[in-house]
């Protein structure tokens, strides 16, 4: 995620509009049509506003305890028709549960909770994570 970890800070993603435009450019430059957007943790600051504005451009959405879910109203989530797999580890008692409270308002969602996994459930239980992800992808049209 730009601006996090070892990536250089950038002013272009300092605003919500900038983050949406950043994802739009990536999809355009890669020529991706209706991709499935997988969004762990801090990437929620990019993925959630994109989903709420352009969910019709996505084939699916997989939020993994993303940050920023409380920044949006229930009505905004209810308008999104993107198939969604809400995924988190059962040991992620803070962000996983918090995100679920907002994301459960997405009309076309299902939930997968990985037993014995923490916030980075894809690292803690990669086999379970990939089974859940591949199962979801297999059901998309």
UniProtKB/TrEMBL annotation:
It comes from the Eukaryota. The keyword ATP-binding does not apply. Keywords: Cytoplasm. GO terms for cellular component: cytoplasm. It is found in: Cytoplasm. Signal peptide: none annotated. Coiled coil: none annotated. SUPFAM superfamilies: alpha/beta-Hydrolases (SSF53474). This is ABHEA protein.
């Amino acid at each position: 995620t730009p601006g996090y970890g070892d990536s250089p800070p950038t002013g272009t993603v300092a605003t919500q509009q900038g983050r949406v435009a950043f994802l739009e450019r990536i999809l355009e430059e890669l020529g991706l049509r209706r991709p499935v957007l997988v969004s762990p943790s801090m990437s929620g600051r990019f993925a959630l506003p994109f989903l709420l504005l352009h969910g019709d451009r996505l084939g699916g959405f997989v939020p993994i305890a993303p940050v920023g879910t409380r920044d949006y109203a229930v009505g905004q989530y209810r308008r999104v028709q993107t198939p969604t797999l809400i995924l988190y580890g059962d040991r992620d008692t803070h962000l996983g549960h918090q995100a679920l409270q907002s994301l459960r308002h997405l009309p076309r969602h299902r939930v997968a909770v990985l037993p014995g996994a923490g916030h980075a459930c894809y690292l803690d239980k990669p086999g379970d994570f990939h089974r859940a992800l591949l199962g979801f992808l297999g059901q998309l049209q």
